[in-house]
Amino acid sequence: MIGAREWLNQHPNVAIGGGCTVAVLAIGLIVLQVMAGRHKYPDGPPESYFTDDDGKTFFAASSTNIPPFDHNGRQAVNAYVFKCNGQKFVGYMERFTPQFHDFVVAHGRSPEANRYGRELKRPGDAKWLQSGDLRKEGELEDIHCPNGGTDIPEEVEP
To answer: What distance in Å separates the CA atoms of residue 120 and residue 137, rounded to the nearest whole number?
Structure first.
């Protein structure tokens, strides 16, 4: 009876093929492990939060929507959502003015539209603030927790 070593010496092609097969399988398993643990990227455009009831509630939708837009028969605007003590709330809202809305829909956002074509407001405020005055925008975007306290609100992404 012939031993394994003698048989491999007599059939070197089989030995090389077997070694290559083991190496390819090992590399394949390593690649599989690395690919399984990597970050998954979204298939479509990212989502943003919107509201159609002055910030009482909010929903996630494609960020390709240019506010204001029609949502279930009501005008929806961007909602900037924050969290304090596990409670999520709308800190402020944003929309484009009618003049800039049509421009942004047709041509996309521009620095001018982002600077002067937006309007901002907090939920419950009667009037929208025209963008362009950085001091007033900063005051409006200075968000505090609804229940008071010293917690710092954390912005939440969809």
So the answer is: 8
- What is the rounded CA–CA span in Å between residue 133 and residue 90? 22
| 9 lies in the same domain as 72 | no
Structural domain of 111: 47-155
How far apart CA 106 and CA 13 sit, in angstroms, is 66
Give pLDDT tens digits for 13-33: 877 888 889 888 889 888 878
Task: Report d(CA 155, CA 104) in Å as an integer.
Answer: 25
Q: Are the CB atoms for 6 and 25 separated by under 8 Å? A: no
Q: What digits encode the pLDDT tens for the residues 44-81?
A: 677 999 999 999 999 999 999 999 999 999 999 999 99
Report pTM: 0.70
- Three-state DSSP at 45 gives coil
29 with 56, same domain: the answer is no
